[in-house]
Write a structure and sequence with these properties.
Layout (H helix, E strand, L loop, with lengths): L14 E9 H10 L6 E2 L4 E5 L2 H6 L17 H10 L5 E9 L2 E10 L2 E9 L11 H8 L11 H5 L7 H9 L1
Antiparallel strand pairs: 1-3, 1-4, 2-3, 4-5, 5-6
């Protein structure tokens, strides 16, 4: 059985992620219109846009940070962009930070311009709820299905392909 990066043994490296995930068609225009944005294909028709400094700082609208107590890396500008873009379809924002087998993860999904799921968070040393961790629940809301060979939604879409947001950004530059 393969382990998801969020369930790796303590002896392995950490995992960090700050990303927007939505249907490929929904993110395609944004990836070309926003400075520093990269769209990377996941499975099941989804795409990931890693949130780097350029994307966080250049999202096209201003906004306050009502979710700043949950998300460490989401700017108000990026949140406003996600809310606006979600009128075209559901968009998830994901954060994970793990090292040595412990860490945190958070997620939220916006749809029709409003918060449809979350924000969800599991802190360091907290157990995941029976319905799954925040990232798996957000991906499930986007329609991800787990196959018999997958441990969870995280693995089912391929979020285990890279171990950090910067690795995703580098992959988008290739």
């Amino acid at each position: 059985m393969t382990l998801s990066p969020l369930q790796l043994p303590e002896s392995l490296m950490g995992y960090t992620l700050e990303a927007v995930v939505a249907r490929s068609t929904l993110l395609r225009e944004a990836a070309t219109a926003l400075p520093g944005a990269h769209q990377l294909e996941l499975s099941q028709g989804l795409a990931l846009m890693p949130v780097n400094d350029a994307l966080r700082d250049h999202a096209p609208t201003e906004g306050k940070r009502p979710l700043s107590d949950v998300f460490s890396f989401m700017s108000g500008r990026l949140e406003r962009w996600i809310v606006d873009r979600s009128t075209l379809g559901p968009i998830a924002y994901l954060e994970a930070d793990y090292f040595g087998g412990t860490g945190t993860q958070s997620s939220a999904v916006w749809e029709h311009g409003t918060l449809a799921l979350g924000p969800l968070t599991v802190g360091e040393w907290e157990r995941h709820p029976e319905e799954g961790g925040p990232i798996s629940r957000a991906l499930r809301h986007l329609g991800v299905r787990v196959g018999p060979e997958d441990l969870d939604e995280f693995e089912a879409v391929g979020l285990n392909a890279h171990r950090s947001t910067e690795s995703w950004v580098r992959a988008g530059n290739d």
